[in-house]
Write a structure and sequence with these properties.
The chain has 544 residues and is mainly α. The chain has 22 helices and 2 strands. Strand 1 and strand 2 form a beta hairpin. The longest helix is centred in the C-terminal third of the chain and has 44 residues. Bound molecules: 4-fluoro-L-phenylalanine (PFF). The site of 4-fluoro-L-phenylalanine has 16 residues, from helix 1, helix 2, helix 6, helix 12 and helix 16.
């Protein structure tokens, strides 16, 4: 046990569960999930989704909770520090770099989308987003609001009002983080999580009582809307589509916040005897409730009732949320109220998630470099502000956001999730890991999960990752038997590279290098600390 450092702790069990659930419940639940489920034909998608939840969702979640609590007792809270004590190699800590850069880099663009939500709720509340029935006007509004047309538009004044919301949202996040774990994150989540669930329930009741708003269009009924979201399509054919499995597994990661380095940090602030099995399950189940029962019942059915199947088809995550839904609210009674409520709900959900992206960086700067709270918050604030400005400046086609999201928010998280489950099952060892997970546990994990966690999860992850690289990175086309790398690859190394994409990847590399250097400095500090506490133990034991 490291005695030189005073660790922060969560103040209550409910608090930590709400904080982890807060990290998990976010834009992924209310925008990303409904979009994917509708796109892939929900019956088949839900089968792949629940299989992924069982094979990788719960197992990695338990692994992160367990490893985090264990390392926290030794005084380590960031992935580099945690991996440093779990992996008996001097290189272990460097692997932990992923658990810091993933959340820090995702924060750089997630907070930008958070600002869109804040802006939309504000404009709805003041009646400024009631632009009539034409979807095109909403899409024009969104494009000018976020600077979709030209790079640099937002910083030149004029159209990009989002910058003011961004500043406010940035300040809110750092203020809460500055207040610390119990007085900041925990307190905010204790208020925000129930509030967002109440808001979602009110909107859900509204949507479920919409009936058939336009009698001239009887097929646009609520029942058909729910059907468009939930009816099983041609399940067999759909399940043969590897893209569906990729999407389902990716959604499980993104939604539960596993594989990001976030839960491992949050759980490191638990006490030795705090339960992790039931708490992990509860937080994940709360996320699934918000995703499947709330997110899945609101967005798509509401859009269907007013716009029909054609109105939803082909809409990506942002299209659905920021172009389609505002039309839907405009067509409902009391658009200002429901529009405000929905986007405020998204905003709250996003803040509780973005807070969890900052804590790993703060933990690392404090324990690795010995910075105090003020210094760590300032340094991380500067770093994320630079990254965020980059994303905001290169707003044309949201190219920077999209590129970084692909490489960090998709590729890197597969890698970190795989590393985490292998550390649990093989480096620590499944027997030891299992026993550690059950210390203070309120329920037991069913025994067959031992097999899943040791063999099935890593194999499943590697298979999904292999598929992902095969189809989405190097782009194998089964019909023509040719390779057509995706634009994410050709943008970087193709005949006509894209400068913004290249710079975005350059930014990711720079941030990674920066943290690798800091980790090597931190390593020296940790070695010295350990030598110090070993000496203290030795001299204690010499006492008569
Ligand atoms: N789980 C969040 C969502 O569903 O929106 C997203 C997220 C949270 C991503 C925390 C990354 C992270 F570190």
């Amino acid at each position: 046990m490291n005695r030189t450092r005073q660790s922060e702790k969560w103040s209550s069990r409910l608090g930590v569960i709400l904080a982890v659930a807060g990290s998990a419940v976010g834009l992924g639940n209310f925008l990303r999930f409904p979009g994917l489920a509708a796109q892939y034909g929900s019956g088949a998608f839900m089968i792949a989704y629940f299989i992924s939840l069982l094979i990788i969702g719960f197992p990695i979640c338990w692994a992160e909770w367990t490893l985090g609590r264990y390392a926290g007792q030794q005084g380590y809270h960031s992935s580099p520090g945690i991996f440093n004590i779990l992996i008996r190699s001097r290189y272990g800590k460097f692997l932990g770099v992923l658990g810091v850069i993933i959340p820090v880099i995702i924060y750089m663009y997630y907070v930008y989308i958070e600002a869109w939500c804040a802006g939309y709720s504000w404009y709805f509340a003041w009646g400024e987003l009631n632009l009539g029935d034409d979807p095109a006007s909403y899409s024009d509004f969104w494009k000018s609001f976020i600077g979709f047309g030209t790079d640099g538009m937002l910083l030149e004044g004029g159209q990009g009002k989002v910058i003011w919301f961004l500043l406010a949202v940035f300040a809110v996040n750092f203020l809460i983080i500055y207040r610390g774990l119990a007085k900041g994150i925990e307190m905010f989540c204790k208020f925000a999580m129930p509030a967002l669930i109440v808001l979602a329930l009110v909107i859900l009741v509204r949507v479920l009582t919409l009936g058939t708003p336009d009698p001239a269009q009887p097929d646009r009924s609520l029942i058909n809307g729910l059907g468009s979201m939930w009816n099983p399509g041609d399940v067999r054919t759909q399940l043969a589509n590897p893209q569906l499995w990729l999407a389902a597994a990716g959604q499980i990661f993104f939604s539960l916040s596993v594989g990001f380095g976030v839960i491992i940090t949050y759980s490191s602030y638990l006490r030795d005897s705090d339960d992790v099995v039931l708490s992990g399950l509860t937080a994940s189940s709360a996320n699934e409730f918000c995703e499947v029962a709330l997110g899945g019942m609101i967005t798509v059915p509401a859009a269907y009732v007013f716009l029909g199947a054609a109105g939803i088809a082909g809409q990506g995550t942002f299209g659905l949320g920021f172009n389609v839904l505002p039309v839907v609210f405009a067509k409902m009674p009391m658009p200002a109220l429901f529009g405000f409520m929905f986007f405020f709900l998204l905003f709250l959900a996003a803040v509780t998630s973005s807070l969890s992206m900052l804590q790993p960086g703060i933990a690392f700067l404090e324990e690795g470099l010995g910075l105090n709270r003020r210094q760590s918050v300032t340094l991380l604030g500067l770093l994320t502000a630079i990254g965020c400005l980059f994303v905001v400046y290169f707003s044309k086609d949201i190219k920077a956001l999209d590129t970084i999201d692909f490489w960090v928010g998709t590729v890197f998280i597969f890698i970190l999730a795989t590393v985490t489950i292998i550390i649990f099952g093989w480096v620590v060892g499944i027997e030891k890991g299992w026993a550690e997970a059950h210390k203070g546990a309120e329920i037991r994990i069913p025994r067959f999960f031992k097999f899943i966690m040791k063999y099935l999860s890593p194999v499943y992850l590697l298979a999904i990752f292999g598929l992902f690289v095969w189809y989405n990175v190097i782009g194998y086309d089964g019909e023509t038997k040719t390779f057509n790398p995706t634009s994410y690859v050709t943008d970087l190394v193709g005949k006509e590279p894209n400068t913004v994409a290249r710079m975005s990847v350059g930014l990711v590399i720079l941030v990674t290098l920066f943290f690798l250097i800091l980790i090597s400095l931190a390593g020296k500090r940790w070695d010295a600390e350990r030598a110090g506490s070993q000496a203290a133990v030795d001299s204690d034991s010499m006492k008569p």
